[in-house]
Amino acid sequence: MSIFVKTLKEQSHLDQVHITVCNVGSRKVTSADEYGAGAWNVFAPNLTIYGFDADADACEASETELEARGINWTEKHIPLGLGKSIGEATLFVTKHPMCSSLYEPNEAFLSRFANLPESASLDFTIEIETTTLDNVCDEEGIETIDFLQIDVQGADLDVLQGASKILNRGVLGVEIEVEFSPLYSNQPLFADVDTHLRNLGFTLFDLGVAHHTRACSPIVSQDRRGQLLWGEAYYLQDPLLENANVKIKEPGKILKLACIADVLGFTDYTVELLEYLTVNYGENPQYNFAQTIIETLSKVLELDKSALDSLPLVAKMRPYLH
Domain limits of the chain? Predict the structure, then answer.
């Protein structure tokens, strides 16, 4: 749950901030997939969401549902399969559609684990056209993306490779599914994705991981939950690094990054970025967050004025308190 963004919005610091989220693999399976109605809704109406999925029916269902609901943000679902190049590819449709991939399921490996074959085994194949995120952004007039979420079952690195231009324009955060073992034949693994994103200046902030136990075993360890197979990796840019992309060093970009970090739950990073903006750009009221930080900390930590004043953070920002 975010801590600072709501206060920033109430104090009009976000009036000129527009957040663009891109969701590749946007089939809505659970409430967590409802980006516009979830934590990101705090930015509405200054919120735009682009969803991409190879399943045209899933995109149509999302569009119909959004139209019926009447939303106060912009959201568009586009039926396209995104990869690293423009062309044709085989889509391997699995027994549960959410496991479908441009990579063939590694059924020999999957069969060794409980419950995986029932959802991830191959059902049928179809030929589809693929394109790149860069190409779509050019066609749709999407100039920037602030947060990129990718969940395409093994082909996630392919999407990144087809998004080099938009990534270099200043994408601030990436949430991406990664596999630690080959659930799909010849797929890239976590190490490949991690190296690619680090080369683009991103820093790994967290991993949400999933373990599975062997199908043949009637017992499970109390200490280990089985083998680590996949997870959700969270990457953010770090504009405070000397070699950071100059496009993310702009104060407006840093403010967006602070907000994204807060939405994702990295509150300590939000504090660091807001403090940095205050100390370095605080003469401009738009980037003076001293009062916001102090008021929020006093509520969350339940500290009185003397305790707050003893914090090094507060002492550093005192010249910017009015």
Answer: 251-259+267-322
